[in-house]
Amino acid sequence: MSKWSIETLSAACAALLLILLSWLAGTAWDRLSSGQQVCLALLLAIIAAACIWMMRKLRAHHAATRQQLDDSVLRYRDLAETAQDGMWRTDPLGIILDINQRMSDMLGIPVAQLLGQNASNFHDEATRRRLCPLWREAGQSCMGELHYRHTDGTERWAMVSGRRLYDQHGVLTGSLVLANDISARKRAEQALAQAHAELESRVALRTAQLQDANARLSAEVAMHARTETALAFSEERMQDIISMMPLSLFLKGADSSLLMMNHACEQQWGVRFEQVAGARIWKHFPAEQNAGFRAGDLEAFASRRVVILEELVWNAQLQENRLVQTHKKPVFDADGLPQMVIAMAIDITDSKRNEENLRHSLAQLRELSDHQQTIKEEERRRIALDIHDDLGQNLMALRIDVSLLHARTAVSHPRLHQHAQRVLDTIDATIRSVRTIINDLHPSTLELGLAPAIEWLLRQMEERGAIRYRLTVNSEAPDLGLDQRQTSAIFRVLQESLSNIVRHAQASVVDVALAQEHGHLHLRISDNGVGMRPDDDGKRCAFGLKSIRERVQALGGEMQIDSQPGQGTALAIHVPLASNTQLSEKNA
User: From edge to edge, which strands make up the β-sheet containing 86-90?
Assistant: First the structure.
């Protein structure tokens, strides 16, 4: 039921009740019959109950409306307090009813002191007519910039906008004003304008100074040009030729004082000739470099020939020492006394650095290759052990089971006995294949040392082909000092060498000699084959030899090849022992 229907029914009930009471007042109660009295009493009771119910309903509706109004006021206050802009609301007379904390901070006055004050107290007449909607002569809203002074004495600016407020009947209820603080922007604009004015003033002053300096410089250049024109033609020619030379060229006297230098030398030293001319050269270079330069000059005069030296030269511009190759030619006068040194220097710093970087890269590649081979060998060893431990044991267990079956069926099941025999033969062949694979991956004899592993390898190679192999061991303990990495690497080198012989050498006898002396292990492999020919076998086995050389150099060893076409090939390998290598690295 709406608000208007409740209020209308309440008024009707009250009016009806008043009419009945007036009628009763004009009519004697005693004149009515008892039935009429009962009906009238019931009617009055019903009307009174309806009025009471409607009044309760009206009070509940008013309470709900008041609660909604309170909630709306709370939301409005929360919005006002969280807003970034200052905000106040006034009544039709300009009295401040609500104001948020942001507006209080902008004015510098506490909220408690602002509430109840007239908004006209904070503006003059012109500002009120321009910005305050209540006193604005035309329009319902306003917007503009406000310049005011804070209570702390500082100047502030705000962008103010406001409008008049009306209720639902069109009656003016007050105004709402919003203010956005733009003080920082205004100060920045003022500072920018001031800086712009100062900059224009400085530019004008600097322009005048530059014009004056340019005039003086032009006069000096003209005087310098006239002075240069007066120089001797022969000296100009010589200077032009020397200055155009791409190499660093300089002349030094008998006392090593600097007489002349070209532009390339100035760039190489990082100074101009005027800064190091004469004896001033001693102040430019460090003392130890000066001593070296003087010693080189004296050596050139003493030898009376061109002396080539590598010297460190300080570059003042780059602030670093540069390595140069200096060619010094002595010049003597008519009496044979030292007169000057003509020197030419070539900067070799970058080439030396490139060589060092190349050596470093080569060492890194060699280490990477050696590490790859080590990992590969470890992986082979792991796979071989896994095959031996897992597949080998399973095959052995399977063979035992089949052997038992073969033994028990010899009499009772002849056909099953024959089938079991075929299975046994297959298992034996499989076991031999597994052992071959294990030995190819990582021979178990490597765990016994290098000499037993080499002896096993030669025996295996001899069983597979027609080549005869002979092993000579010149030490009782050739594996002393070899670690697992060296043992595996040397074994693989020997294996690769023998494979190359089998594929390319066409040899019938191969001699392998193993010796240990002076902290090194010596391995020599020789054959009686056709030798290495550049147009045939040498090309085909070149990659294998490169691989062998890299592995030997990774171990810190050396490899030598002696081959003559038709007379066989000899490969000699010298590798330092592990204990020797570790001692050298520790000393280094």
Answer: 96-99, 86-90, 172-181, 155-166, 141-149
Long-range pairs for 276-281: beta carbons < 8 A, 24 or more residues apart: 279/255, 281/256, 281/257
What local confidence, expressed as pLDDT, does residue 51 receive?
72
Strand partners, 342: 251, 329
Residues whose CB is less than 8 angstroms from the CB of residue 10 and which lie 6 or more positions away in sequence, other chains included: 51, 54, 55, 58
Look at the block and give the residue holding tokens 């020939």.
305
Is the per-residue pLDDT at 267 higher than 80?
yes
pLDDT given for residue 585 in this prediction: 43
DSSP character at residue 477: -
Return mean pLDDT, the chain.
78
Global confidence as pTM: 0.40
| DSSP 8-state code for residue 436 | H
The number of C-alpha atoms within 13 Å of 99 and in the hemisphere containing its C-beta is: 26
CATH C-level class of 234-347: alpha beta
Q: Exposed (0-12), middle (13-18) or buried (19+): which is 154, by Cβ within 10 Å?
A: exposed
pLDDT of residue 536: 42
Assign 494 to helix, strand or coil: helix
**DSSP class of 3:** H
The residue to which tokens 């009930």 are assigned: 13
Residue 104: CB atoms within 10 A of its CB come to 18
When mean pLDDT is compared across 78-82, 119-123, 158-162, 237-241, the lowest value belongs to 78-82
Residue 575 DSSP label: E
- What are the backbone angles phi and psi of residue 271, rounded to the nearest 5°? -140, 165
pLDDT at position 1, please? 47
Closest-CA residue to 253 (of 345, 311, 344, 338): 338
Q: Choose among 519, 523, 520: nearest CA to 510.
A: 523
CATH architecture, domain defined by 448-588: 2-Layer Sandwich (3.30)
Q: What pLDDT sits at residue 311?
A: 87
Residue 537 reports pLDDT greater than 70: no
179: left (phi over 0), alpha (psi -120 to 50) or beta: beta
Assigned superfamily of 83-181: PAS domain (3.30.450.20)
Helix (H, G, I), strand (E, B) or coil at 108: coil
- The 3-class SS string of 246-307 reads CCEEEEEECCCCEEEECHHHHHHHCCCHHHHCECCHHHHCCHHHHHHHHHHHHHHHHHCCCE
b/e sequence 170-205, b meaning 16+ C-beta within 10 Å: eeeebbbbbbebbbeebeeeeeeeeeeeeeeeeeee
**pLDDT 10s digits, 17-68:** 666 666 655 555 556 677 766 776 777 777 777 777 777 777 777 777 677 6
Q: Where are the beta strands (DSSP E) in 387-531?
A: 468-473, 509-517, 520-527
Asked if the model's pLDDT at residue 69 lies above 70, the reply is no
